[in-house]
Queue: 2 jobs
Job 1
Amino acid sequence: GNSVTQMEGPVTLSEEAFLTINCTYTATGYPSLFWYVQYPGEGLQLLLKATKADDKGSNKGFEATYRKETTSFHLEKGSVQVSDSAVYFCALIGGYSSASKIIFGSGTRLSIRP
Amino acid sequence: DGGITQSPKYLFRKEGQNVTLSCEQNLNHDAMYWYRQDPGQGLRLIYYSQIVNDFQKGDIAEGYSVSREKKESFPLTVTSAQKNPTAFYLCASSLSDSPLHFGNGTRLTVT
């Protein structure tokens, strides 16, 4: 079945550092891919998405490119801020065996030092 | 503004009591979902419903029950049969295979 694997956290960086959070997936067919962000005590918010191979999703300075050849959707940001501290979830939906259920990775906690 | 409302934000119950968590959406979404999140962990699917009067078990449905009598509402009951009910519960909704919209969660503590 479909699955998503994220790098384990926590990830701790200094402000203005470059961020990469790795995400790889297993799916048949052509799933859509997402990154969600969860701030402390809140629900998840959609950060960005990509629906087909080579698409780049972007929002709030974050980017991720749908790479079918490497089955990856790594999240990147060129210069992180303290306000980016949160938990980030990679997710997919669709493909041939989705059963209309979104599959989440286990989440990566990001902490940014001032 | 459209969105998903979960209430209450914090809920405390004694062991052995059933408790119902509310989830209401005014997004006109067909599908609704309940997830459980434990500290430092990802989301686990409890139940989901794709249309009114129909719902399916997720990965961890034991000890939980739901109803979907109206499109806007998908309440979750945590029964006394749930062995470890203390957790953060998240409700979500979506249109078909579009991204999920989440509520702000209910933190349930059972002592």
Job 2
Amino acid sequence: QVQLRESGPGLVKPSGTLSLTCAVSGGSISSDYWWSWVRQSPGKGLEWIGDIYHGGSTDYNPSLKSRVTMSLDKSKNHFSMRLRSVTAADTAVYYCARQGSNRSFDYWGQGTLLTVAS
Amino acid sequence: DIQMTQSPSSLAASVGDRVTITCRASQDISNSLAWYQQKPGKAPNLLFYGSSKLDRGVPTRFSGSGSGTDFTLTISSLQSEDFATYYCQQYYSTPKTFGQGTKVEIK
């Protein structure tokens, strides 16, 4: 059974950079899947942030593309996301997820709350 | 971006009721649609992909249908564990987008 678990700072100051990591167990991130980040805030509902393929290709939401970078660490079997220049609008629960071969999100982490505040 | 519009935004129903939720895409997405169930404090859980393909372990009282722009999620006989918020999501094109959710509450 694939399991994903997010980790992050919980609190980031405005204009700072958010870094989140998703540890994958029960499966390898080198498998033929896309690995994704999705966030959820009361104001905007569920928002897809972007994907990274096991080979390193990325696909980002155009609304966030200028601020986001995703990466893989195959030695640690985890993937990560950095979001620069954060504002209060980036306050949300951040989920990592796996996209199955059919491109839907079939496994999710439990989510981690990120608050942007000084 | 493809806009996904769900209706209703919320509904109240009783155990045993038949419940139908609709999702409309702003353009043709073929059958590139997923449905998720989310309970408070939990991550979304995949119910359907490809509009009508039930994910593993999902009870058969759930069904999905539709293609193109109009989609439906039906619960044939609502159970207590089905009270939750349901989301549709298109993966036809980037950016992937979600509906705003339909909250199913106890009447």
